[in-house]
Amino acid sequence: MARPHQPILSRELIMTAALELVDKDGRFTVPELAHKLGVSVSSLYHHVGGRADIVEGIRGLLTRPLTEVAPADDWQEAVRRWANAYRDGFAAHPAAIPMLVSQTVSNPVTLAQYDRLAEILEDQAGLTGDDLLVAITMLDNLCLGAALDLAAPPEIWSADNRDTALTRALAAAPDPDRDRSRRAFERQLEVIIASLARQLVRD
Amino acid sequence: MARPHQPILSRELIMTAALELVDKDGRFTVPELAHKLGVSVSSLYHHVGGRADIVEGIRGLLTRPLTEVAPADDWQEAVRRWANAYRDGFAAHPAAIPMLVSQTVSNPVTLAQYDRLAEILEDQAGLTGDDLLVAITMLDNLCLGAALDLAAPPEIWSADNRDTALTRALAAAPDPDRDRSRRAFERQLEVIIASLARQLVRD
DNA sequence: ACCTGAACACCGTTCAAGT
DNA sequence: ACCTGAACACCGTTCAAGT
Fold this sequence. Notes:
The structure is a homodimer. Helix content of chain A is about 65%, strand content about 0%. Chain A is mainly α. In chain A, α1 (about 10-25) packs across α4 and α5 (about 75-90) packs antiparallel against α7. Chain A starts with 10 loop residues before the first helix and ends with a helix. In chain A, about 40% of the residues are buried. At the A-B interface, α6, α7, α8, α9 and α10 of A face α6, α7, α8, α9 and α10 of B.
């Protein structure tokens, strides 16, 4: 075949196909991805730097909705919106999280969204230096953790043939209750915001 | 060489060597592990089921300290002790966390510790069914998140050559402030405990 | 510029052979 | 029972060859 007149691949196409594989199988492989795209493995390397680049692309896809979140005058409301959109992005593709956790964040879209959060906390709220970084880390962990628990409940702990308090609780639980998980997330988010607000008053 | 009179390998030896590699390099490979142990790759398979088994063994090593945590009459204190020991276990080996997150928990030592937590929350505190599982998940996420943020701060976000609110905050931050991270963890833990207590009063 | 096939180094796992 | 070397299927990456 060789070079077609119209390129059949693009970064966008590759990233979304990879994400689809992750959603379906919980993982993706470069050969699997090439097969899904009807292309030879080496073709991919004309568009992406390698596997890690594709993973970063997936991170970009998950954080893209954050771009459209409207700002708010109240810093607490701005943080709320940011955290909810961030969590939602990951919650929609929980299988991707382990991959993302094991790799440094370098995707520009994602970094830009962290910059936005940093600006909200610095310019609007008035946090500085170390406090600022701690706040970002807390919010980051909250969103990731909340999305992570959607990935798994029945699957996190192997339901072997024991009979214990844990296995009974697992059996009693319905499949991942997304609504309940969301409420737990929102409650913890309010707690963090309140704690930041208290900290600001003290200064 | 063939079979030695005294076995030179054991599960314990394999697991601890693997954990040392993870601490040193952030990852481990079966060949690397064999090399470190001065043994051929196939020898390992006489003692462990495979790579996933070794990862579960590492999980067991990290949760072993939990075995020695003394029980407490007060459920709130019991939960506090459990969560602190759990977090400390992971915080001592943060590089292992991505590996652990991507694999179902099947290690018996770890499962036994989750059973203990479930018993505390069920028998001592009085939580039931779904509430129980939600509480466990919240505590699990808290500990994992807290340990995760120790893994990284300067490394999570690629410090490229931009100048933004985020990069300035990163530059201002000292290396991972373990003490500050611990205080943030303990504050969030108290919040969860208080929220569980309030929930119990309501019933 | 963009696709291909062939090649390479590496990984996880299996298995027959040795004691 | 426990170590070994050889073999296998698979993965990520590179590169010269084609248009």
